[in-house]
Amino acid sequence: MNYWDHGELSVSGNKKYLQNGEVPFFWMGDTAWLLTQTCSLEECALYLRNRKEKGFNVIQIDFFHSYKEDRKEGDEGWDKDIRNPEYWELCDRVIDMAEDMGLYIAVLPVWGSIAKSEIMDEEKMVRYGRFLGARYQEKKNLIWVIGGDVRGDAAYPRFCALGRTLKEYNPSRLMSFHPFGRTSSDQWFAEEPWMDFHMFQSGHRRYDQVTLGRWDDKGQGDNTYGEDNWRYVDQVHSRADVKPVVDAEPSYEGIPHGLHDPREPYWEDCDVRRYGYWSVFQGACGYTYGHNAIMQFHSDISKPGAFGVREHWMDALHQEGSCQMRHLRSLMERVDFVHGTPREELLLCGQKERYHRISVFAGKNYIYCYDYMGDMFILDLKDYRDKKKLSGYWFEPVSGTFSYMGDLTGMKEITVRPPRKASGQNDWVFVVFSEDGSCFPC
């Protein structure tokens, strides 16, 4: 049974999560921007099956990432691009394959750099939206994403025109906006009726890389959160009109810190785990993973690719970070996460900063604590003292393994001391499960 067999994808009653009918949906996305523009049908099938079997359920792609400048005189330019029947037949097949595998495709119709250029205007956006809306009106596994690594105010009227037009063809289909690095869609589109859930791009920079003098420096007046991607969740959830929110582009695995300089260290699997657990335990409706080689489908390793890419995309398919994302999803789906909340007040030792932050997410019958550095902390258990049985576990986010650590029944508090890992990557999830909620690991 596929997700949409339970009902269309929609926003939950508390406005913070997604659901199919009454069944909660946890967004576990992968970034595949250039899939249909770069890969053959056979390669698309290989990629989709790999992601399906790893537990991903949303694939983020875009239909047009760049524009061919070598147009002959008299050519219709952009209009000719969107009238290429062979390309649209490939897109149709990919969307159909994804549907057969039970995967949602989050489609970005046109990348932001094109949308804000002289190539496009509002009238062309509307025409393009009508073309897409009519072609894909009945598809069950589509989510529309406007934007594409761009500020909302770079082409605000055009983005809104495309959003409104697509919404006319299928009003119940969910829609969002993929923003510029270290910004969130709620900065511009919080009041737009076509906006169903928010995306933010926490981006690829370290805490100390606020300004690099490059094209992707942020605008004046933007919030500067560094690597604290959980703060974007708070930003969205603090609004009167609460909506679900997801980190749709954190630091990609296998990309240099700061994006541009391959002499810098590269982001690793532990980093993508940290971004995932930090944002989800703060109340995000899911998380999107990305790998540098896969997002651009780099295939010619004899030539330098973008952003210091080092691997062929088929090798990158098997990188550690992508193998570990299913454990975050399975951990959340084990409990009633829709009614869970961030609970850092349960930290009796107080909250810590940056990499030493302890993220706490809890519900009626469980507590999850993500500890990136393996630091000691003290957890308040008073709200759970009346549980018939309370047990503690270590959840290892690399392997997805639960390891029983003790009976916590009746305890007021516990001093948590994570074990040390030989690998040096010391992140753990400390888990408290109540028998009342049937939460014990199998």
UniProtKB/TrEMBL annotation:
It comes from the Bacteria. InterPro entries: Apiosidase-like_cat_dom, Collagen-bd_put, GH. Pfam families: Apiosidase, Collagen_bind_2. Residues 14-337 form the Apiosidase-like catalytic domain. SUPFAM superfamilies: (Trans)glycosidases. Residues 342-432 form the Putative collagen-binding domain. Coiled coil: none annotated. PANTHER family: ENDOGLUCANASE, LMO1036 PROTEIN. This is Collagenase-like protein with putative collagen-binding domain. It comes from Murimonas intestini.
